[in-house]
Amino acid sequence: MSIVRSGNGIKEDEVIANREQILLLAKDNRLYRGLLGKLPSLEGVQIIWSMWIGYWEKSHDISDLCAKNNLTIHKIHTSGHATIQDLKSLTQAIQPKMLVPIHTFFPDQYDQFGVPVRMLKDGEMLRL
């Protein structure tokens, strides 16, 4: 079954009606918790927590909701942190045509990787 999307994305009632076919990427916020509260049942809902475990420990709203409803939680955080040398080695191994650094404190160090670097401003679109 395919879900018809409006110009504004998938609507809440579509998520509820098709819940067994949906993987929802959501932040832990009141909108997400509100959506869970509108489901007729939380049976089968599984939570994948991919952020740092310290945020889980501080996030009592979602952790309490999961405990109260006996939801399955998968904690699978992988660090996105890499050293400049690791990134340089990866670049040499895959030989990309261009690098676009994101989420970095050291964008100026990418010039040493031996491939063209394209710096983007926040919100700037890159057309390929």
Largest β-sheet summary? 2 strands, parallel
Summarize model confidence as the mean pLDDT: 82
* Share of helical residues: 25-40%
* Poorly predicted segments: none
**Radius of gyration, CA atoms, in whole angstroms:** 20 Å
- Spatial gap, N to C terminus: 32 Å
Count of all domains:
2
Q: How would the global form be characterised?
A: elongated
User: How many helical stretches?
Assistant: 5
Annotation, overall tally of beta strands? 2
- Estimated share of beta-strand residues: 5-15%
Spell out the helices and strands N to C: HHEHHEH
Quickly give the structural class. mainly alpha
Which sequence of strands runs across the widest sheet? 1-2
Topology:
Elements: H1 12-17, H2 30-38, E1 46-49, H3 53-58, H4 60-68, E2 72-75, H5 84-94
Parallel strand pairs: 1-2
Description:
Strands 1-2 form a two-stranded parallel ribbon. The chain is elongated. 32% of the residues lie in helices and 6% in strands. The protein folds into two domains: 12-75, no CATH class; 81-128, no CATH class. The mean pLDDT is 82. The longest helix is centred in the C-terminal third of the chain and has 11 residues, at 84-94. It is built from five helices and two strands, in the order ααβααβα. With 128 residues, the chain is mainly alpha-helical.
